[in-house]
Amino acid sequence: RGKMSGCEARDAKKLVRSPSGLRMVPEHRSARSPFGLDEPPWVPDKECPRCMQCDTKFDFITRKHHCRRCGKCFCDKCCSKKVPLPRMCFVDPVRQCAECALISQKETEFYDKQLKVLMNGATFFVTLGTSDKSELMVCRLSNNQRYLILDGDSHYEIEIIQISTVQILTEGFTPGGGNTRAVGMILQYKVPGSEELTQMKFTASEDFSCNKKLSASWLAAMHKATKLLYESRDQ
């Protein structure tokens, strides 16, 4: 994976036990992943006499369970699934309501596959701003998921939370709705201390030594990462 850059010196982690389960979290909040979500506050027991999904009344037999993702209160039938929830750093699968479990299951593919693709990196021609010159660079996500690292003759480290827009460029579209392939992206980000946006254009290399399929997979993973990032900001 190449050597670690200055921005990703090993971030210490600690094991934390919360009412929801065991979590492996960064020691410093500033080191947390931009894709992470905070644990939700649980709806207090006294405020939920009935299941918030099926309206079954809670009693000695019908017990209350809280969804670890939304914090709402459900009966066992409506909150029986235990699903991995890496966005909240849970070590083991945790109890979630049916709606949240579906969302978490969809995110699993990102954490199991696409995050690794982003960390392994791909090669692109990178053009900065309005320059007419481009540079061949290896682009990858840092191991702590907080920076986009670009290495060529130049070196850039872009903080993920400073990225404002990502537009994936495709080719192969036909009026009849044919298959498209990701061939590049335009990324805009803020340099810390500046309010102005800096733009970078990434184009998949035509060089035979560079794998275009790998570049397309990397771009698809970046698209998914951006969607998760915007969801995190909205919550």
UniProtKB/TrEMBL annotation:
Annotated SUPFAM superfamilies: FYVE/PHD zinc finger
UniProt entry tagged with the keyword Zinc-finger:
yes
Cited InterPro entries: FYVE-type_Zinc_Finger, ZFYVE21_C, ZFYVE21_C_sf, Znf_FYVE, Znf_FYVE-rel, Znf_FYVE_PHD, Znf_RING/FYVE/PHD
Give any Pfam family that matches. ZFYVE21_C
* An example molecular function term from Gene Ontology annotations: zinc ion binding
FYVE-type domain boundaries: 45-100
The UniProt keywords, alphabetically, are: Metal-binding, Zinc, Zinc-finger
Protein name listed in UniProt: Zinc finger FYVE domain-containing protein 21
Organism listed in the record: Aptenodytes forsteri (Emperor penguin)
